[in-house]
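Tokens for chain A. Residues wanted.
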């Protein structure tokens, strides 16, 4: 969420300490504020905040900031405060649940039961406020961000105040359990600072503060809160702030791996093993790039190579059954994915071709303990246009079955899933335009955009492609062989489209840029129209690009899947789950390409513009038939 004037925020415990600092920081951005606190100091803070907010707004018919004296342990008072905020500002964009206290009485001597009050304010009130904030944001039908202020003492024990530590630990786990509200466009995160110089921290032993590296600057806490508000990828996240380590998300991936259940694509079950034996020949065929050329057929040849044993200790041998064909195969054959000048790249020839495939593991190296022969697996490494390929075990993606639909989910599906979430920062209730939508990746983009609650517009060329897109639920299909894309967009979407998933390039890029709405995002995932020119891929000049995006606060962003490898497992699991539950369809082009010698034909076919869905080559037709029977 962009911090901009006109948003509204509600902050509990906003009369002092961290709460006050966050109120004033939000006010400096022109954000309307409601301060909830039991202390009358809230009036003074509201006055300061109102002065800041007024600098960025003309005359208002409502207070820019207001203080509502509230006991956060009283549900009725809290409900009234949230209702008042909604009625005043027409919604709730940001809620920061910051109110908290320490327990001043040693636990074993706490006959007054003051520890119950600590738990009520630090944990129960946070739960109550989160519930009310969610309900208010749902009522407004707009995206919202909730930040619950925990503490580093909720990540590790605070021996001097176990009740405080327990309550803040509860806030951490409660918040991390609310990740799924992201589906409703409500992101809930927890902020866990170490000691900040506040009235609460002043009661602690100075020696403890010194051991932790001293007090945190308040600016670091504000920076952390703003990061959680602004970063659309953060939902259910816990940001730990310390003077020693700065801003760090907890748990680390290594810690998380200790408890997280492995996703479907990483599980190995005996029922998924293929029992029939596979004969490993002394040699195999593969496709290599012999000379740099944008014409894949001219650049490559089929060669025979020996299968050498023993395998490297950390490697596996995969029998490839299906390989995926990609528009960028011609970029690979021309050397565009290698660094250095042409002479340096040519010195590395020949290259093993192919980006993706699925098959069966037939042998493993000595140190590989988590994979076994007979395991179905996918790969996304160079060399999939081969009957067999040896890859590092870390690059293996175990799958349920080595089917062509799985191949489609790899480069094509992962590009759509990760690019829309990370690069396009896709939300709901937007207009999303997908070009070349009936292709390998376009089919995923249109469906994921629909599943996210958007109106989807798609371009294609031909009745068969248009039919596929309608079957996939696209709201408006524009067949450029029947209609003029520019005319349709101008007439039916006069305010423009919010997100463009663009893979064509050239004139289509210009057309999409001109159709982009204010604040729109144009996501470039390829430029297939430029890949096979007479002299190869030639850069284009887009006159006036800077002026256009500047005048409408637009964003043009690129996406290259290799740079998001750390997300492949997670997103492949999501795609598999959606497919297995019937929510995601996978279209594989029906034209058969059988055997290693058909790969060049398949690449030419994809670039002919005739393909519908993902183009896949069956590297071993006899094995493919066995799989179909199973």
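Reply:
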């Amino acid at each position: 969420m962009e911090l901009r004037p006109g948003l509204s925020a509600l902050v509990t415990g906003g009369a002092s300490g961290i709460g006050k600092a966050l109120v004033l920081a939000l006010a400096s951005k022109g954000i309307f504020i409601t301060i909830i606190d039991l202390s009358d100091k809230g009036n003074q803070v509201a006055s300061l905040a109102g002065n800041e907010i007024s600098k960025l707004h003309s005359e208002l018919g409502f207070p820019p900031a207001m203080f509502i004296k509230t006991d956060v342990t009283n549900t009725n008072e809290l409900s009234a405060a949230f209702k008042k905020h909604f009625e005043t500002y027409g919604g709730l964009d940001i809620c920061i649940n910051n109110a908290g206290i320490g327990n001043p009485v040693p636990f074993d001597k706490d006959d007054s039961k003051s520890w119950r009050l600590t738990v009520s304010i630090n944990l129960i009130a946070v739960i109550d406020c989160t519930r009310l904030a969610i309900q208010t944001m749902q009522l407004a039908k707009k995206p919202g961000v909730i930040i619950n202020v925990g503490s580093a003492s909720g990540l590790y024990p605070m021996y001097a105040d176990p009740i405080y530590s327990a309550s803040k630990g509860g806030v951490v786990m409660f918040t991390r359990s609310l990740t799924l509200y992201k589906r409703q466009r409500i992101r809930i995160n927890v902020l866990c600072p170490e000691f900040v110089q506040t009235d609460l921290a002043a009661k602690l032993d100075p020696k403890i503060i010194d051991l932790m590296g001293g007090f945190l600057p308040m600016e670091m806490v504000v920076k952390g809160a703003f990061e959680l508000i602004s970063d659309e990828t953060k939902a259910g996240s816990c940001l730990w702030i310390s003077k020693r380590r700065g801003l760090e998300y907890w748990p680390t991936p290594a810690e998380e791996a200790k408890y997280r259940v492995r996703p479907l694509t990483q599980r190995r079950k005996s029922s998924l093993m293929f029992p029939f034996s596979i004969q490993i020949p002394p040699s195999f065929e593969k496709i290599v790039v012999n000379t740099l050329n944008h014409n894949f057929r001219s650049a490559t040849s089929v060669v025979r190579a020996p299968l050498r044993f023993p395998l490297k200790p950390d490697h596996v041998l995969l029998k490839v059954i299906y390989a995926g064909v990609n528009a960028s195969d011609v970029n690979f054959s021309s050397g565009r994915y290698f660094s250095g000048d042409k002479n340096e790249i040519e010195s590395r020839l020949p290259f093993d071709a192919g980006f993706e495939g699925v098959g069966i593991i037939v042998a493993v190296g000595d140190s590989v303990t988590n994979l076994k022969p007979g395991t179905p697996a996918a790969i996304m490494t160079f060399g999939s246009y081969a009957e067999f390929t040896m890859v590092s075990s870390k690059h293996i993606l175990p799958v349920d079955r080595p089917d062509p639909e799985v191949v489609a989910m790899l480069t094509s599906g992962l590009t759509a899933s990760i690019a829309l979430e990370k690069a396009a920062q896709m939300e709901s209730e937007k207009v999303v335009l997908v070009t070349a939508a009936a292709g390998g990746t376009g089919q995923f983009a249109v469906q994921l955009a629909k599943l996210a609650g958007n109106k989807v517009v798609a371009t294609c060329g031909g009745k068969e492609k248009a039919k596929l897109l309608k079957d996939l639920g696209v709201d408006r299909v524009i067949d450029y062989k029947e209609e003029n894309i520019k005319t349709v967009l101008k007439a039916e979407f006069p305010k423009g489209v919010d997100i463009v998933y663009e893979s064509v390039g050239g004139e289509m890029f210009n057309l999409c840029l001109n159709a982009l709405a204010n604040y729109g995002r144009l996501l470039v995932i390829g430029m297939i129209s430029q890949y096979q020119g007479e002299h190869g891929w030639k850069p284009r000049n887009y006159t006036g690009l800077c002026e256009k995006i500047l005048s409408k606060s637009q964003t043009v962003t690129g996406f290259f899947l290799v740079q998001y490898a750390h997300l492949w497992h997670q997103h492949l699991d999501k795609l598999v789950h959606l497919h297995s539950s019937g929510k995601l369809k996978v279209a594989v082009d029906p034209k058969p390409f059988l055997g290693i010698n058909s790969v060049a034909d398949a690449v030419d076919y994809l670039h002919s513009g005739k393909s519908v869905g993902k183009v896949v080559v069956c590297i071993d037709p006899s094995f493919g038939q066995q799989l179909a029977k199973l």
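Residues 8-256 form a domain with the Rossmann fold fold (CATH 3.40.50.720). The chain has three domains: 8-256, 270-402+615-629, 408-580.
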